[in-house]
Amino acid sequence: MAVWEANLRCEYDYPLATLSSEIPSVPLYCGCLGSRTWLQFPASSSAVVHTAVRHVQRAGGRILDSSGSRGSHLIVFSDAGNFRGGIRTIFDSSQCQLTVPWKYLDGSGYFRVQCLEESRIVSLLHELERVGPSRLVSKRKLPLEVLPSTTWVETVFADLSPKQAEALIEAHRAGYYREVRRVTRGQIAENLGIGRTTFEEHVRKAERKVMNTLAPILEDSRRTGAMAPVRWGRRPRPGSKGAEVGEAREGSPLPVPYDRSSRRSVSRDQLVPVRKGRRDDAGVI
Questions:
Q1: CB-CB contact of 176 with 188 (8 Å)
Q2: What's phi and psi for 235, nearest 5 deg?
Q3: 8-state DSSP, 278
């Protein structure tokens, strides 16, 4: 037996789905606490907040709290009017656990559910299609040990050895990962009673294992729409203004590399020209 997890998308008549159509490209995250619903979204302007508050009130929801901080806004309201019911009863009747938060974006609802039988996902999808166009975005089988109380311990940190975990915890506790680093690796190693090289090896292996576990989760969130899309700036063409260092056109002077260890620039006289295709001690140039 295992736990099945699925991500589904459904287009149906619901106040928050309609609201997401009025403020396109703004993801709405929400969840329920008893008879109250909380709604969180990135507030790029006061107009977005005003539209959300007005829409909730117009649908019959009674605003209990509305506050914002650092570009994000939270609205808590009572389940009343058109907010009662919804499709949450469909998840319950299909014996599928709806995980929080669920999301509304551009008129559609995105839901993540967990159940103990794969067939439950098929029945849930059929029931959702009765209220609106629905589709299965993704589905995966999880180990039975991955339960809500142990998800992160059993998945993200499962491969860490005790020494790697201790090194990572001590580094975080000492302020090594703060924006302004307050401690050196040598100081942390001294506190642990080990050499600096040994500490660096434990931390490097721990960071690699954690990132190898987290990266697929982030990719899955981006693929299913749980993460807002990112628009990067245009990459400059080789040789154009703003091109990356080392992409100079043929015949132009080489950029001066920076020696991080000595904190000084290296003279161009110290550079050794290398022909394309030749090898040095480090490999292919």
A1: yes
A2: -75, 125
A3: -
Q: Which helix (H) or strand (E) segment is 283 a member of?
A: strand 283-284
* Helices assigned H by DSSP within 180-254: 185-192, 196-224
At 75, list the tokens.
Answer: 């609205």
What pLDDT is attached to residue 109? Answer: 92
Place of tokens 């008129």: 107
Question: 285 is written with which tokens?
Answer: 């140039």
Q: Are 90 and 109 in contact (CB under 8 A)?
A: no
Q: Residue with structure tokens 């209990």?
A: 64
| 10, 26, 169, 192 from 175: Cα distances, Å | 44, 34, 10, 15
pTM above 0.85, yes or no: no
The predicted-structure confidence for 73-119, as pLDDT tens digits, reads as follows 989 988 765 566 567 788 888 888 888 888 999 999 999 998 888 89
Other Cβ atoms less than 10 A from the Cβ of 151: the count is 12
- 219: Cβ–Cβ under 8 A, 6 or more apart, which residues? none
Stretch(es) of the chain classified as CATH 1.10.10: 151-224
Question: What is the rounded CA–CA span in Å between residue 179 and residue 181?
Answer: 6
Looking at this protein, which amino acid is placed at residue 164? Q
Please say whether the structural domain 151-224 has been given the CATH code 1.10.10.
Answer: yes
Q: Name residue, tokens 């329920």.
A: 32
